[in-house]
Fold this sequence. Notes:
One of its GO terms (molecular function) is oxidoreductase activity. Keywords: FAD, Flavoprotein, Oxidoreductase, Redox-active center. It is built from 16 helices and 30 strands. By secondary structure, the chain is an alpha/beta fold.
Amino acid sequence: MRIVVIGSVAAGTSAAAKARRNDESAEIVIYEKDRDISYSGCGLPYYIGGVVKERAKLTPRDEAFFKQRYNIDVFTGHSVADIDTASKTLSIVNMATGEQFEDRYDKLLIATGAHPIMPPIPGIDKPNVFPLRNVAHADAINEFIQQKQPRHAVIIGGGFIGLEMAENLVHRGIAVDLADMAPQVMTPLDPDMAIYVQQYLERNGVKLYLGHAVEELLGDEEVDTVRLAGGIEIETDMVIMAIGIRPEVELAKRAGIALGPTGAIAVDTRMQTNVPDIYAAGDCAEAFSVINGKPLYRPLGSTANKMGRIAGDQMTGGDLEFRGILGTGIFKTFDMAVAQTGLSEKEAKAQGYDVVVCHNIKYDHADYYPDSAEMVIKAVADKTTHKILGAQIVGPRGVDKRIDVFVTAITFGAKAEDLFHLDLAYAPPFSTAKDPVMYTGMILEGILKRQRPLMTPDQLIQRQMAGEPVTIIDTREPEMYEKGHIEGAVNIPLEDLRSEAGKLDKNIPVVTYCNRGVTGNAAQNLLLQMGFKEVYNLSGGYNNYKVQRKRC
């Protein structure tokens, strides 16, 4: 059997290696149009920033490695021009010599990845405008920085690569402005979580231009000014284009291979396309949601490796099948970790779910143990089934640990009330006695099963702006109230609430709050038991409200 793989990064090399482990007798060949293979694309920003010192750390394997270790023939600098599905042949071009030749396959894997989006903006072809998708792009950026010593950069795009590059350019002493046509950074996040990232970036010196599309890159030999919509002009020495990627599917389309609704190659759970004996995996292939089975395109190295392993197994008679993804992602910018899994609130509502949400601000470990730090967790659950639909977390430490617990819970269909019963590891240096994940479950259970509703800061602000009657009770001590409070709030510390509650109108909606929500919840319980009709605790407390008020 002859197995041919097109593409040699995460999915392609994983598939070839798995196929070899399954079948020593198979002929396995990889064609790659670039020069670098099996590299860590996710590490490229850190190579540029100097965190990763050696290029070789990101490109540890070459053609000789795969030949020696796996008896796999890898041909770099070779482009597959066409696929003839009837004859099972490939037209291939040696890009160095121009030689054209044919090869045949019994099983074919398309792992062509994705390409950076480079919109037709005037000036985008100037030599100091850079995408970042592969090692060659990173080399070009590094060389430019070393030779030209730029003092200022503009990043176009506020996603993973844009925010990772912001950190790493600042670390190299380069001032950074970041522009995005969206009104927020990290569009997979809900706006009330993205605002935490935005404020953090600004505190670290990154100037943001959100809601402004790029119209033109100005300059003679090189770009020296970025013009945004609305006439905004930013002087710069270099530009990083990080507005996203698209699946590389032209070869597949020409061969009659079907695409899915996301624009990536449609595959089944065995990574098979609609054409017999042709498989697809990695950033060119479409995934599906674990939650609802709907098509999903979230290109990440972890998913590409998984898909590749499954494809390699299937091509050699194995039974591995793809089980879908949650679209889980995590990255760091400066010292903030940002993570998301499953559906956001806006996605869940758009897909017809009746949702409940909560904001939980908790320390990553016991606050009396040194170096504890707050994280903000937003969780989304289905009001009907109580199942957890998604979570978003921002904070300096402990974020990766908590997001992976949510991933596991959602994958296995956990309900919100199940989170409290998880037997998670606890000791003061590592967690709190009620871990932030467990506490999130407690909050959601209170909403879903005990009629302890939350009101988000957005909802409260909307009520205030509409002039709707609402009693807002600040349950903190007077000195905290004096330092800052919600407009119109009355200060009734929790210990005074029993005696003061009789002065309040039980028929007017009440919102209680403290700094983070715990004391506010105690006040809510008390008022409900005293016969108040409609009492809400403010989601995330005053700390969350302060952040959201600036956004609204």
